[in-house]
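Hello,

Following up on my earlier ticket. Below are the two sequence lines again, exactly as submitted.
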Amino acid sequence: MAKFLTNREENYAQWYNDLVIKADLAENSAVRGCMVIKPYGYAIWEKIQAQLDKMFKATGHVNAYFPLFIPKSFFSKEAKHVEGFAKECAIVTHYRLKNDENGKGIIVDPTAKLEEELIIRPTSETIIWNSYKNWIQSYRDLPILINQWANVVRWEMRTRLFLRTAEFLWQEGHTAHATREEAIEETQKMINVYADFAENFMALPVIKGYKSENERFAGAIDTYAIEALMQDGKALQAGTSHFLGQNFAKAFDVQFTDKTGKLDYVWATSWGLSTRMIGALIMAHSDNNGLVLPPRLAPIQVVIIPIYKNAGQMDSISAVAKKLKADLEAKGISVKFDDRDNNKPGWKFAEYELKGVPVRLALGPRDIENNTVEVARRDTLEKEIVQMDKILTHVLLLLEEIQNNIYKKALEFRKENTFKVDTWDEFVRILDNPGGFILAHWDGTIETEEKIKEETKATIRCIPFDSPDEDGKCIYSGKPSKRRALFARSY
RNA sequence: CGGGGUGUAGCGCAGCCCGGUUAGCGCAUCUGGUUUGGGACCAGAGGGUCGCAGGUUCGAAUCCUGCCACCCCGACCA
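Thanks for your patience. The regenerated structure is below:
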């Protein structure tokens, strides 16, 4: 059918790239490493935003906005934090251009040099905590539960549409608390919100766990993550929530008076989820015919395609289609009636399969005569004929079923590609074929983790929250271990 | 930053080795007509600083020099 895509089995990376372009989600821009998110791709992001925003507000958070620029001096206040981001910063040094004296275009005006350089935010902890310093004096000012929807810049050496771009869109939550316990509770709450969102809206099963010290966010005491498995057996970090302890409060001198009148530093968390999620969505569900979108995040949930030979037929089909569209919309479903005359039905079928529209309804003269609709579902590509009077409930149920089915399929895939491994040989062998998640014992040291990474490119994705206590031996060093970690090669 | 590759119409490419009519093909676009239940067909039309700057030559997309950009493979990362 869709011979326009590279085969997923032949070249997974190329398939992914083709799909992003052909489905009209995004394209490379004139700026190195930065993408243009096209309307269809952005519509998915808007759906993600709308749902997450609702969930953040339901858990007591509010939105605010902080500057894109961060003074260099702010950045260096938390030692680990700078170290982590220093190598991928874009820096503003001047504020004016002028005409070149030799008449050759425009140049940076050397007299317009900034006193202090500005960093384009790679993340906003520093600029936000600088503000929190002024906002917090007493325990009565706490907690602060703020989220920001923003763009950030990380000057990555190699980029890939959605998965890693030099500029990306995300949300970052930054909260301030009076006690350690409350901050930890917040960190956990938000990783649960992310997992809930991933599983119930993206139809993406995830594993929640702790990051190893090596993989932790720069400046965090503890990082929790949700990890998902892609169809090529590689892992993708889909969201992170950090317990920052008092690190940033100390760096920015944010103290408060508690109920007993004692002065203490504020406890912090931060948590983020980015446009990378769209990459996860694509890689987790799609096939050789194109995207497969979960109904709850699909910009178009149902497309209606007319099949006709002449204007007379089109008139009667159009009347039925418009009524059907209105009825479905009244049930809260987003519907597109594609009555463009410049493409044949076959072309449209292929087009909407490529774009992952969950349900397709075809209406032709036969259907008008028999009072029926042809219903096709994107996830299985099955077609059936449904009586017009049953179509509303049928579509509603079908959308739910597709949502559940693609989740089940992804979960099944993850189960089949998660392995408990106890020997080094097996570990190496499984990583190469078939790949996937590997649960193995690890001695808990950074040295071992790095050796494993060097030799196999596999990293510890997380130590799953639900990983049970059990005695074992580290797969690499043979030293005793009490718990299994989750390993994989990752994006 | 190291290794490899590519820049020719909106997109994908051929031409370059071996210099020589008006730079070609497919897709897309526009016009007209026939079509329409799984990516239609015919006829016609428009669209080019051949990445940039020099050089060699009677003549350069083609040869030489320099530069720039992008892509792929490694080291960094959500």
